[in-house]
Design a protein that fits this description.
Helix content: 40-55%
Structural class: mainly alpha
Oligomer: single chain
Number of domains: 1
Shape: elongated
Radius of gyration: 19 Å
Largest sheet: 3 strands, antiparallel
Strand order of the largest sheet: 1-4-5
Number of helices: 8
Number of strands: 5
Order of helices and strands: HHHHEHHHEEEEH
Distance between the termini: 29 Å
Length: 189
């Protein structure tokens, strides 16, 4: 859910900051972020880092569910995406593709598009693809999967275009998403 601060930052402050020289942009971000961090969620996509540039974004810590350059599976899919879109995919774009493929495979395996049968098959099968590691669609219909804590590289650490993140830690899906809410009507009691 977007807050008023998110909208203000995105629509009003963002275009102004984008016009600043890189050094001024970095100084502005470093002064602003500690004061506003408690007010707004920390969310940055790889395309945001690309727009900011490594000189301005270096050192930022963020959590992501997908990084294009994590392993052979992520690189293979992302290079196909890049060939069509001329940019690397965000975690949202990779996640949507993964979820649609999981859904279509469940239809294929069940031989029907009956929603209850397809959803049951989707919950039954683990999700392990270019996007998700240790993924599982829970009974409350939340797809739980591993996340990564990453740090944006310094410009001199980046070896090729879009080489932006250093993976610092893996956060298990159970730790990241927590247990199902027992008050949820979908959770078996």
């Amino acid at each position: 859910m977007w807050t008023g601060i998110d909208l203000f930052m995105g629509f009003f402050v963002g275009p102004i900051v984008k016009q600043m020289p890189v050094t001024a942009r970095r100084e502005f971000i470093l002064r602003l972020v500690p004061k506003t961090l408690f007010l707004m969620p920390t969310l940055a996509l790889i395309t945001d880092i690309h727009s900011l540039g490594l000189p301005a974004a270096q050192g930022l810590l963020l959590t992501t569910s997908f990084y294009w350059d994590m392993d052979d599976k992520t690189r293979e899919w992302s290079k196909r995406y890049f060939a069509k879109m001329n940019r690397m995919p965000t975690m949202w774009q990779a996640g949507v593709y993964s979820s649609v493929m999981h859904y279509l495979n469940a239809i294929k395996e069940t031989g029907t598009d009956d929603p209850l049968k397809v959803a049951a098959k989707m919950r039954e099968k683990p999700i392990e693809d270019f996007f998700a590691r240790n993924g599982q669609l829970r009974e409350d219909n939340l797809m739980v999967h591993d996340l990564w804590l990453v740090q944006v590289k310094k410009p001199e650490e980046s070896k090729y275009p879009w080489d932006y993140y250093q993976i610092l830690a893996t956060i298990s899906g159970e730790e990241a998403f927590g247990p199902p809410n027992p008050e949820c009507s979908m959770v078996k009691k």
